[in-house]
Task: inverse folding
């Protein structure tokens, strides 16, 4: 019997949903044609297109060669007469907007984009998702999304929420702006480490560099040390700063991988205030995966509703009545119409926020109960999109 499902895009009062995944037309031929025209016009390398047909990526068990980062041009950096070791010079640079339209790729490996520099927690998450992948650092979250869309990489791994810091709202907004699909998730236990130059003790530190969120998660040890906090773009960047400038009285809070990458010593491990500090990452791809029922799955959905009493309750009830658990709900203001007038006759023109609702349900779209639930939601939702159906990560 044919599997019934829901469309990736939907609106209210629509006819019965088509087969899952069919509603989105990934116009590969049009995309490739446009890219070829642009690349010919600019006389750039056509390696992205030449290898596209031979790139075979398996979402769960990639069989690819060992990791090998592509080397970039070496910098002639010096700090107080200290020359950087070769490994640091050969680290890949984060992608910029220019790179997104001109960088070639060989198509021989699973290439996974992440935000940050080598040694970032996002890179750890990429290796957990694809142990033998080739990681590609990106300058920001937007660049990682575009790198997948433009075939420069096969997947992107981006954080979506942290058990201490909460949701990463920027990536929720980007999920709606881009037409990528969630094909997996990674739960990573955060291990903040205090790093310093070789031979330095933590008691000698007078300043510490890191991301503001890392500072917030390590308040106890920072207060005990009485150090000055210096903000950085991300944790890996803080480790790079210490390794580059080599101040003996300055440390960094970053991952243990960052310590290896930048040649720093780990002065203290697991310095976060909360031991159960876990970040959840999403794995994004150009095409959805076929949902299964052989293992626990999640389905991520975003929708908006018409105004009215109890409408949100009615929306969530379609899952409760079918015994489907909601593991996550997030609301974001609808940017196209953030405010709605309640009563035009009121002198003050009373308004309130109009929202998009992002939910994660613990069910696969291969299950009839999930298909019927989303189909019923589609009947009264003004907008509905299935962001992806993917296996749950149950191993920390």
Result:
């Amino acid at each position: 019997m044919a599997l019934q499902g829901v469309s990736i895009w939907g609106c209210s009062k629509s006819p019965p949903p088509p087969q899952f995944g069919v509603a989105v037309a990934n116009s590969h031929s049009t995309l490739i044609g446009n890219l070829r025209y642009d690349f010919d016009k600019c006389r750039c390398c056509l390696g992205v297109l030449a290898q596209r047909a031979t790139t075979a990526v398996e979402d769960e068990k990639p069989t690819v060669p060992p990791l090998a980062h592509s080397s970039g041009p070496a910098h002639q950096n010096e700090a107080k007469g200290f020359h950087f070791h070769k490994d640091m010079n050969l680290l890949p640079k984060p992608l910029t907007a220019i790179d997104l339209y001109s960088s070639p790729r060989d198509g021989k490996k699973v290439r996974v984009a992440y935000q940050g520099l080598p040694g970032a927690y996002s890179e750890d998450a990429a290796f957990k998702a694809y142990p033998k992948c080739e990681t590609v650092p990106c300058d920001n979250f937007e660049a990682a999304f575009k790198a997948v869309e433009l075939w420069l990489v096969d997947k992107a791994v981006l954080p979506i929420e942290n058990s201490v810091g909460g949701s990463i709202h920027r990536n929720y907004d980007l999920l709606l702006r881009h037409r990528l699909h969630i094909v997996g998730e990674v739960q990573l236990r955060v291990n903040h480490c205090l790093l310093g130059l070789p031979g330095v003790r933590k008691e000698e530190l007078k300043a510490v560099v890191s991301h503001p969120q890392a500072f917030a998660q390590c308040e106890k040890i920072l207060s005990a040390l009485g150090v000055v906090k210096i903000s950085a773009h991300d944790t890996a960047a803080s480790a790079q700063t210490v390794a580059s400038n080599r101040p003996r009285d300055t440390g960094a809070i970053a991952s243990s991988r960052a310590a290896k990458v930048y040649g720093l010593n780990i002065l203290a491990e697991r310095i976060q205030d909360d031991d159960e500090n876990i970040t959840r990452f999403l794995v994004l791809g150009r095409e959805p995966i076929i949902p299964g029922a052989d293992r626990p799955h999640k389905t991520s959905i975003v929708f908006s509703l018409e105004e009215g009493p109890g409408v949100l309750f009615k929306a969530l009830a379609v899952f409760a009545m079918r015994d489907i658990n909601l593991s996550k709900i997030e609301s974001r203001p609808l940017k196209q119409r953030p405010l709605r007038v309640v009563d035009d006759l009121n002198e003050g023109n009373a308004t309130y926020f109009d929202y998009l609702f992002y939910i994660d349900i613990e069910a696969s779209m291969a299950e009839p109960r999930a298909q019927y639930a989303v189909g019923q939601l589609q009947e009264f939702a003004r907008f509905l999109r299935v962001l992806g159906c993917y296996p749950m990560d149950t191993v920390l």
In short: The CA atoms of residues 320 and 371 lie 14 Å apart. Residues 1-86, 101-107, 338-342 have pLDDT under 50 and may be disordered. The two ends are 37 Å apart (CA to CA).
